[in-house]
């Protein structure tokens, strides 16, 4: 699709030839994830996480469809349909349910690695801005889907989580409260909210799948990025996706699924909250309302605004929380440095790791109980989050002196042999660039 | 333009956070939060080791039966077990006849209708029935328990932080608040003279707010008589009932562990094979892409020609 040397599809059997002439679906697949997609040869393991996200989306859809066959979307029946029918009476229902519960967590884990991969290696930069933005759309859809899915078992955290999150909308003046009531179909989460959440929870994964297709399509126009950030120059810089990256993705997917299996089978409730095994009770508020772990950084940002400065603190919190994701859409224009990879940006690299630590702190604070120390730490971490993207990044991209880039992808990977055959005079220089390229 | 707007937005958010930080600090200095008895004198559950722990854990069925006996003779006076049917008791090692007898002997009957008149009636429980609740509804349960609602126990070990260890600690943790000291050696009533346990509540440092409505349920050794000859100490009874409640919350635990081990072995083999396949696939690509390397298009074409000549496929 993207490079002139991409191998065209050649049907291997008469049936495939027949099919290809009438509906070139095999051709499309071959060009997307087969031997017809040339990929930079120097990808590291951080490039495996997109495929992993696709695997977990598939697991979620398959387990979710079967779970929906046994689920009752009523306030009377929801809790028992999950905890009695599915967990006890449906054949292997406990497996489907735990696989779906932990599948959501793992979907977020691999997606977070995928996003931070993009941040470090500048995957959002031209010509891949749309790939990045479509990815953020997927992420937003994932968050909506996960939130609504967590409401479905109708436990205490389901109910109060729904109460808190839909309460965000009431922070907006005038339109807020009517909007919240309209979205919920009532003044508090109830039957109307549960049934619409179920309907949307079933719909959105298919919307995600559709956007994933756009995401991959947009990616295949310029082709995959790579850890050096240097553009592909000729055929030697690439390898066909199949068999090279299918083999690499294959074994790595096995390793991650192993981890997923260990959690699902031996600690299935580790990532959940005990309160969700108590049926929803609108009259009893849990001691600590916390969302699922993957929302904790945003929850921390929301809670960090404690002072009514012109606007109410709650509105500040909601604006900042939405803003913290929305600003990522502008990243391609905020970070103007032409160097993509963080490997060649010494100052950017330090700030990047600071951001990673910052988000981990925000995550911890979002899940921890409220006390003056945690609130203060959360406020500092939240301030850094905004300063990082909106103030530090533009300044760094303006004043930083990047390290020299390797001449080509091939040179950066096949260092030893390239150096061996290279003339003695240039040995040192090349060795230097190679060392900096592989230092990470 | 994007960067200028972004710059300002970033500064505004950071500024408001700074103001929040400073005002929060000022409030903290002006009136520091008062210490709470429920945080300083609350105890984390004591560790409890059960046969079902760990990836190879299996239930000790005799212990589960003893735990069920404690539930049916003590706990079930107030606590329901809505998600468990009598037929599920097969998981404890009872046979069909025993389950039938347990069901029909159960102290509460199940609601039914009189087949002749259609009026509300009750009948003896069948193995297909869920274990009947001690009270017909929440109002009745509260009326009988000083307005406290005894929670359903089916999922209790999954619904409380600490699980079975919490249940065990709670059951054995009743004590007198007079003279009670925490791990730091501070005495509760000296530090918080107002923390007296209210009437109708009972002091228990393992309970979140230290005062629980449930009176101590297991008070004396020998409260139940175990058929298998195990000595029914309070410690033993509370351990047994905690083990039983792990089973009620997670009756498929053994199947889950067994399947998990099979899946892990399967994936381990698959991953190792996949890794070897990956190494094999990448062998050539990794080492040689010098201009004269194997993956050089010219060399590949040469290779293909040679293979075609020799009649080798590929």
Q: How far do the termini of chain A sit from each other? A: 31 Å
User: Which second-level CATH architecture of the largest domain in chain A applies?
Assistant: Up-down Bundle
In CATH terms, what is the architecture of the domain at 61-80 and 133-251 in chain B? Orthogonal Bundle
What is the CATH superfamily classification of the largest domain in chain A?
Cytochrome Bc1 Complex, Chain C
CATH superfamily of the domain at 61-80 and 133-251 in chain B, called what?
Cytochrome c-like domain
The share of residues in helices of chain B is: 40-55%
Spans of chain B of at least 5 consecutive residues whose pLDDT stays below 50 are none
Shape field of chain B: extended
How many distinct helices of chain A? 18
**What is the total domain count of chain A?**
4
CATH class type of the largest domain in chain A: Mainly Alpha
What is the name of the CATH topology of the largest domain in chain A? Cytochrome Bc1 Complex, Chain C
Count the strands of chain B?
6
* Radius of gyration over C-alpha positions of chain B, nearest whole angstrom: 32 Å
Biggest sheet architecture of chain B? 2 strands, antiparallel
N-to-C SSE string of chain B, H for helix and E for strand: HHHEHEEEHHHHEEHHH
For the record, the CATH class of the domain at 61-80 and 133-251 in chain B is Mainly Alpha
